[in-house]
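Example 5.3 — Fe2OG dioxygenase domain-containing protein
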Amino acid sequence: MEVKSTNQIVAAMDSDYDRKAEIKAFDETKTGVRGLVDSGIKKVPRMFHSGIDITENIATDSKLSVPLIDLQNIHTNPALRKEAVTKIRSACQEWGFFQVINHGIPIPVMDEMIDGIKRFHEQDPEVRKQFYSRDLKHKFLYYSNTSLYKDKFANWRDTVGCSMAPNPPTPEELPEVFREIITEYSKEAMTLGCTIFELLSEALGLNPSYLKDLNCAEGLFIQGHYYPPCPEPELTLGTTTHTDTAFITILLQDQLGGLQILHDNQWLNVLPVDRGLVVNVGDVMQLITNDKFSSVYHRVLANRGGPRVSVAAFFSNNSHDLEKGITKVYGPIKELLSKENPPIYRNTSIGEIMAHHFAKGLDGNHALNPFRL
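Solution (predicted structure tokens):
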């Protein structure tokens, strides 16, 4: 009688496993990860297994934390503004991330935005299904995992998203459960984004309006992420290691935590700050600053508690460009270049960067690699 080795048994199991079929069946439910949880599952389906040890390379220095920057009175007090600019410059160079407080977005607006995203994902599945789509041409999108069919493993999260500037959807194109708040929050996020771009411009030694004049604040895409409770959080991730394909991202997160950034080759928790917002440098900002500012890897852990809810405001004009067929070209800012600091990147369009981002999926590789000279 032939006795099979453990490796042979595992290989046989692997050969019997039809990943494509599992992904297709999951996608066709149109209810996402929330639908799996509602069905009462006790185990994480194999398509979500990451094979990653999330306990590796965790930062052990308890004093290490993402810089916190107070924006109180920066429009009226030159000394406070200068201090904020100095801190932002350091944060963008050394961390790629920082948190802001006294940023001007009212607390009730932030709370209601989180609640609105939660309401959408927890409403009747039959209502949610009506919005489920992977067609990026739609004004409003509801889906689970942007590159579900390309990624090595699926993330434990569902997402809604829509472009809110420069051409926002009509009220009728938005779900009723958060129609009013997403419009209000987007206006607040745009105002804050413009302030951040002014401070970033000054941090680069440029005129305060420089980045806005480059249309960095023209486009705003809002994504609402919903991370349901996970029965086996050690087996998967809420969001795979990635960088953001944008100029900057402003993130509103609830108090549950789970966001981590890769700093000095160690994973560091970005702990929620009461009434604070997370700001991070995106790939296109790294490109135009010629690596002066860093777009760093980050991820989100799955968790047993929750659900965790976050709202990401991406500043990038790509959706507008792609709709219009416009290829707006960006390259390293000439004022930052010299013989000692030659351009690192070739000129390219955001559309090209985005196309590469979608084609490669969440594979852990930096989206800027193909655009280096």
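Remark. Residues 30-371 form a domain with the Jelly Rolls fold (CATH 2.60.120.330).
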